[in-house]
Amino acid sequence: MRRGVTVLVGLLAVVTAAGFLDRVSWVFEPATVFRLQYVVLLFAAALLALALRQRYLVVAAIALAGINIAAIAPWQDGARSAASSTDPTLRIVAFNVKSGNHRYDQLAPLIARLQPDILGLVELTPGWAHAAESASSSSR
Predict the structure, then answer these.
(1) CA gap 35, 71 in Å, rounded
(2) CA–CA gap between residue 63 and residue 16 (Å, rounded)
(3) Rounded Cα gap, residues 55 and 66, in angstroms
(4) How far is 134 from 129, CA to CA, in rounded Å?
(5) CB 117 within 8 A of CB 93
(6) Residue 119 has what DSSP assignment?
(7) Residue 78: phi, psi to the nearest 5?
(8) Are 39 and 66 in contact (CB under 8 A)?
(9) Which of 3, 48, 71, 104 has the fewest CB within 10 Å, making it most exposed?
(10) Residue-wise pLDDT tens digits, 82-109
(11) How far apart are CA 133 and CA 120, in angstroms?
């Protein structure tokens, strides 16, 4: 059990450090996504280490949890201000039309109903491009 907690804290130390290397390479970016989960696991590991009387692991786990909390804390401050009804809006619509889908006639009514300022289509084929062009010119 002691070895398991040591390995867990060690692994979480590695992914915590990797999360700070995301500016060096995109390979490290996934390590930044789970910082809150790292905190939970590190506190659990700290409790296990405390029960197993491994004080150095308790300190390490709590320090690593603090580092992860500090990394995500700036994203948590302040309430979001609500947009007023007089602020300009921008409607962006994006969806996957699926290249094998040939129901081009359904795009124009959707665009007319949603009235997007920006339309993004994934898996765009020449047929879908033509349908989007026709639909956007008819909705003007």
Answers:
(1) 8
(2) 11
(3) 17
(4) 9
(5) no
(6) E
(7) 75, 145
(8) no
(9) 3
(10) 666 677 888 898 888 888 888 888 888 8
(11) 12
Maximum Cα–Cα distance across the chain = 72
Q: How far apart are CA 64 and CA 16, in angstroms?
A: 7
Residue-level length of the chain: 140
Q: How many CA atoms lie within 13 Å of 73's alpha carbon, on the beta-carbon side?
A: 8
Cβ burial of 139 (10 Å; 0-12, 13-18, 19+) is middle
The answer to whether the beta carbons of residues 122 and 93 sit under 8 Å apart is: no
How far apart are alpha carbons 72 and 53 in whole angstroms? 30
Other CB atoms within a 10 A radius of the CB of residue 18 amount to 17
Burial 111-125 (b: 16+ CB within 10 A, else e): beeeebeebebeeeb
